[in-house]
Amino acid sequence: MNIDDVRMREMVNNMKREIILKNHPYDIFLSTDNRYHTYVMVNDKRKPIAKSTKEKVEDALVQFYKENEAKTQSTLKTLYPEWLDYKLICTNSSNTVRRIDNDWNKYYVDTDIIEIPLAKLDYITVDKWAHSIVKERNLTQKQYRNMALIMRQVLLYAIDKGLIIESPYERIRLSGKIFAKTSKKQSSTQVFLTDEQPRIEQEAYAEFYTTGNPVSLAIPLAFQTGLRVGELVALQYSDIEGEYLHIQRMEVRIPHKDTDGWELSNTR
């Protein structure tokens, strides 16, 4: 930041200060206790401010009105990135945070509810939103819980920051009847039948002989050993000892968030 930027910021702050003090509805007066006094409205009640100097009272007023402005302007949209960063620091699973971010992009981005100031986000609005999104998206109970986690935890985060007093979401109760039913997947689509295994292995061997790419051999190796994908890709020639294969490491893909989105890094 150069000197001109600093001067411009100071000028803007001074202008904001003048506007705040000009619009303050109560006088600043020197009382018999030799302190300067004024009042502000908090929850429809008049709250006194008293300081040793008039300048300190003005500083307190500027701080109060700036904080109050932040409360009235905070929305799900403005608070979500801050909450997600907090979640990423405090959680042990970046995969969970990545799933949350995917849900945000899928269910929240470009919706009206994220633009409503949190101070005006009432129970009726949130209840209508919850019922509508379940019906419109045909969500199962699990999908809804995962999706609504964002609404619930961001509002609790807003309480902890002093932006709102209570969360309207805590009163939301949805009947189990409105959720989509989870259809059981056919076993034929989830497992390989005994007579299918030889044909799959033959295809893998044929691809290996055609291309010379040893990756194809991972399929019959997985069938014969029961290795998981992370264990397969982490194998090294040094793991082979005569007729024995030592499984001693696994590759894990860990997501990392930066300004451009999510990236995956491999660890073993």
Automatic annotation (TrEMBL):
Q: Which InterPro entries match?
A: DNA_brk_join_enz (IPR011010), Integrase-like_cat_sf (IPR013762), Integrase_recombinase_N (IPR010998)
Name one process (GO BP) from the record: DNA integration
DNA-binding listed as a keyword: yes
List the GO molecular function terms: DNA binding
Keywords, comma-separated and alphabetical:
DNA recombination, DNA-binding
Please verify whether the record's keywords include DNA-binding.
yes
What name appears for this protein in its UniProt entry? Tyr recombinase domain-containing protein
Please tell me the species this chain comes from.
Anaerocolumna sedimenticola
User: Taxonomically, what lineage is the organism?
Assistant: Bacteria, Bacillati, Bacillota, Clostridia, Lachnospirales
